[in-house]
Design brief:
The protein is of the alpha/beta class. It has helices at residues 32-35, 44-56, 67-80, 91-108, 128-133, 137-140, 158-167, 190-203; strands spanning 11-15, 18-21, 26-28, 115-119, 150-153, 171-174, 179-180, 186-187. The structure holds pyridoxal-5'-phosphate (PLP).
Length: 207
């Protein structure tokens, strides 16, 4: 299925920051997946851990406890200062979970149709809820009806979020990329993010 317009290059191997295509041409990998191969290619600790684990036990499902996952969750919680961890396979799955948690939180507070503030030019993924939260018609086109419950405002504009806060009592969360990638490299200011944090805390909204 044609989901991405692909560049006609296929890579066959990689070493740290370098990758080689089928003809043996060497490239500096400045893309790193789409910014996900943070340890580069062939990192010996990573390849050893993958090989050892997959040879010991490949998969047991979420129906059982997973000791390694619990250890990782503890570590992530300690580093982030948060108390729970949700493991998932992709960015859109993470955002779907965030949207569901925000709605659950809203219903818990007695809000009938909980809303989430999202931004112009945002990109949150290609599942139905995340493409509805995305601020780009191209991503949404052909997949209507969209998932309701998103209130769109201009990016990096705290006044517009304050206005929503003043009149829309159904809002329970704000979903924002600190740096928009797909929408252009749009960088929000530190002050905007501080103001958002303060507003969300005051309103009792998730951020
Ligand atoms: C900001 C942002 N959110 C969500 C996603 C969706 O992630 P995935 O493609 O892993 O579902 C992306 C993907 O590029 C992204 O850049």
């Amino acid at each position: 299925m044609n989901t991405y317009s692909r560049i006609p290059v296929a890579f066959t191997r990689g070493e740290r920051v370098w990758v080689w295509d089928e003809s043996g041409k060497k490239y500096l990998d400045a893309l790193a997946g789409i910014a996900v191969n943070t340890l580069g290619h062939g990192h010996p600790k990573l390849t050893r851990a993958i090989a050892e684990q997959s040879s010991r036990l490949i998969h047991t499902s979420n129906l059982y406890r997973i000791a390694e996952q619990e250890r990782l969750a503890d570590k992530l919680a300690a580093i982030s200062g948060m108390d729970s961890v949700f493991f998932c396979n992709s960015g859109c799955e993470a955002n779907e979970a965030a949207i569901k948690l925000a709605r659950l939180y809203g219903h818990g507070k007695g809000v009938e149709g909980p809303g989430i503030v999202v931004m112009d030019k945002a990109f949150h993924g290609r599942t139905l809820a995340t493409l509805s939260a995305t601020g780009n018609r191209k991503v949404q086109q052909g997949f209507e009806p969209l998932v309701p419950g998103f209130v769109r405002v201009p990016f990096n504009d705290i006044e517009s979020v304050r206005q929503v806060a003043s009149h829309d009592k159904s809002v329970v969360a704000v979903l924002v990329e600190p740096i928009q990638g797909e929408g252009g490299i749009n960088i929000s200011s530190m002050q905007y993010l501080r103001d958002l944090r303060e507003l969300c805390d005051r309103q009792g909204w998730f951020l």
